[in-house]
Amino acid sequence: MPNTPSTPDRDNLPKRNLMDHVLQPPSYGWQDEENNLIIPTSRQIFHEFLFRLNILRTKKNWLAFFGWARVLLLIPCFVLFLFHYFSFYLLGIAFLYGMVIMGTHGTIWYHRYCTHGAYTFRNNFWRFITRNLTINVVPEEIYVISHHVHHAKSDEPGDPYNASAGFLYCFLADVNHQPISVDLTEAEYARVLKLMEHTGVHANTYRQYKKWGSIANPTRTIVGWLLNWAFWGAVFYWLGGPALFFTLFGAAGFWAIGVRTFNYEGHGKGKMRHRDGTDFHRKDLSINQLWPGYVAGEWHNNHHLFPCSARSGFLNYQMDLAWCYIKFMNRIGAVSAYRDSKHLFLAEYHQPYLDSKKAEVVI
Predict the structure, then answer these.
(1) Which of 188, 99, 115 minimizes the C-alpha distance to 150?
(2) Mean pLDDT, rounded, for 201-212
(3) How far is 287 from 268, CA to CA, in rounded Å?
(4) Pairing between β-strand 335-338 and β-strand 119-121 as defined by DSSP bridges
């Protein structure tokens, strides 16, 4: 019987850069042989999207399928609000909940805490409260791991929502580009878990990960979602009957779709759109925008400059509702520590800019 070459133990190989392979690459790839960004056609993007949503093909598609299943369940709520319960009063409530509350919570929870650890909760109780402040729509795992890659490779090949590849590339990124790789070694999986351990997400064992292709445990994830929706559904129905129920669940669905457009817009639609005196970080295409800044505290260029800051609204006009919540929680003792980089921003970037403008006037 011929000898079969032994398979090397990948855990004993030299460490690879985790950010290079922690995400599952799309069938069209991240980059070509010359390291140029591959820009897929719309047909390729949709084909990949449907392929990765197919849970009949493999159960490892469950998390991507689950994420969009929730969105599809919310769409009828939005339709009922528009065509059966609509009033300008409810429209105002829908705007407040869908744009401001959902948007700000996304910045507070997914962005500044889960991904960047910009602040620390005093105990798990306050973490649980903050996590469930709104209707649960986005899986933490899909957001967090891919966002670490986004910062490591911002606007470069491998960035899961690279705006230079177009709107669809970003809009469907949560399915096509953001799920974690299903081929991590046990040592690599342990490193990935460290990026999520503070979030409270109950992680699969390595054996379970190999079965399900995810950090999140399906049973716990689905039960947590059902409890979250049941709680908020009961609260909304008690406060305002079916009209408020469908209004707010519909607003959550509107946000869930709208938030998928942000990174395309927040990185200048793939173009260099920096403005002097506003966008001080020039190492990528991120820009500060008034709308996401005011409704969600997402001053994106500032955030890329100081990603681990609990505040990103650094200038006087840059209202930051997410920071207001974090600071309030600190005042009442729910948040024990936070990072605030405003003083560094003013000293290292804004004041030198003001000095340079004054020098130009003098000359």
Answers:
(1) 115
(2) 96
(3) 7
(4) antiparallel
Cβ-count burial of 327 within 10 angstroms (0-12 exposed, 13-18 middle, 19+ buried)? middle
Burial class (CB in 10 A: 0-12, 13-18, 19+), 91: middle
In angstroms, rounded to a whole number, what is the distance separating the alpha carbons of residues 320 and 328? 12
Confidence of residue 302 (pLDDT cuts 50, 70, 90): very high
8 A C-beta contact, residue 169 and residue 161 = yes
pLDDT at site 362: 66
Would you kindly state where each structural domain of the chain is located, as residue ranges? 18-25+39-362
Q: Over the stretch 82-96, which tens digit does the pLDDT of each residue have?
A: 999 999 999 999 999
Question: Rounded to whole angstroms, how far apart are CA atoms 96 and 103?
Answer: 10
Instruction: Tell me if the pTM is above 0.70.
Output: yes
Q: Is the pLDDT of residue 9 over 90?
A: no
Which H or E run contains 338? strand 335-338
Q: What is the mean pLDDT of the chain?
A: 93
User: Cα(202)–Cα(217) distance, rounded to whole angstroms?
Assistant: 7
**DSSP state string for 196-263:** TGGGT--BPPHHHHHHHSSSB-HHHHHHHHHHHHHHHHHHHHHHHHHHHHHHHHHHHHHHHHHGGGHH
Task: Please choose, from the candidates 321, 280, 323, 338, the residue with its C-alpha nearest in 3D space to the C-alpha of residue 304.
Answer: 280
Residues 6+ apart with CB under 8 A from 91: none
Q: How far is CA 68 from CA 72, 139, 225, 303, in A?
A: 6, 10, 13, 27
Count Cα neighbours of 255 within 13 Å in the Cβ-side half-sphere. Answer: 28
Q: What is the H or E stretch that residue 337 is in?
A: strand 335-338
Q: Which residues contact 37 (CB under 8 A, 6 or more apart)?
A: 30, 31, 156, 157, 162, 164, 165
Give the tokens for residue 166: 């177009």
Cα-Cα-Cα-Cα dihedral sign, residues 348, 263, 159, 321: positive
- pLDDT at 1 > cutoff 80: no
Count of Cβ atoms closer than 10 Å to residue 98 Cβ? 25
Work out the average pLDDT over 302-306. Answer: 97
